[in-house]
Amino acid sequence: MLNVTVDQVEGRVPVTVLRLEGELDASNYESLIAQTQELYAAGTRDLLLDLENLEFVSSAGLVGLHRMALIMRGETLEEAEEGWGAFHAVSRDLDSADSPEAHFKLLKPQPLVRKVLGTSGFSNVMPVFEDEETAVASFG
After folding, report:
1. What is the distance between the alpha carbons of residues 77 and 98, in angstroms, rounded to a whole number?
2. What letters, b where the CB count within 10 A reaches 16 and e where it falls short, cover 39-70?
3. What is the pLDDT averaged over residues 7-33?
4. What pLDDT band is residue 100 in, cutting at 50, 70 and 90?
5. Which of 2, 30, 104, 105 has fewest C-beta within 10 Å?
6. CA–CA dist 4, 23 (Å, integer)
7. Given this model, what pLDDT does residue 122 score?
8. pLDDT above 80 (res 87)
9. In whole angstroms, what is the distance from residue 54 CA to residue 130 CA?
């Protein structure tokens, strides 16, 4: 089960903070992608994903994170890679001039989640912060 809380904070630019609690997996990653699409459509351009209370992320959850980053980069999901292709896209992003992500950042992942992010290469593509104030200040 995944609980999501949405907060708005002001830095140099407005930042939307999604606070995740529980597990991000195949049963819920699509709803998180849909929520990100809704936020983007409503004008959100900078998104901080608070992972402090996220206990687990599966491979489907990683696909969700990648798709969220693509949305925040202004890409449509029709352009996005599906399934395992997302992992190959992460490798391409490592070599991209657009890396690291300017509009999608991660905050305070738990040790298990941090390990998954590191093993998959996501933490090399998406900035990871330990302090919310520093993370918010990094946007804009």
Report:
1. 17
2. bbeeebbbbbbbbeebeebbbbbbbbbbbbbb
3. 97
4. very low
5. 30
6. 11
7. 87
8. no
9. 14
Place of tokens 């900078």: 46
Closest by CA to 55, choosing from 118, 7, 128, 111, is 111
| DSSP string computed for the chain | -EEEEEEEEESSSEEEEEEEEEEESTTTHHHHHHHHHHHHHTT---EEEEEEEEEEE-HHHHHHHHHHHHHHTT--GGGSPPTTHHHHHHHHHHTSTTPSPSSEEEE---HHHHHHHHHHTHHHHS-EES-HHHHHHT--
Res. 9: pLDDT tops 90:
yes
Residue 128 phi, psi dihedral angles, 5° rounding: -120, 125
Does the structure show a pLDDT above 70 at 98?
no
pLDDT of residue 2: 97
Is the distance from CB of 39 to CB of 127 less than 8 angstroms? no
The predicted model gives 68-80 an average pLDDT of 79
CA 107 to chain centre: 9
- Residue 63 tokens read as 């696909």
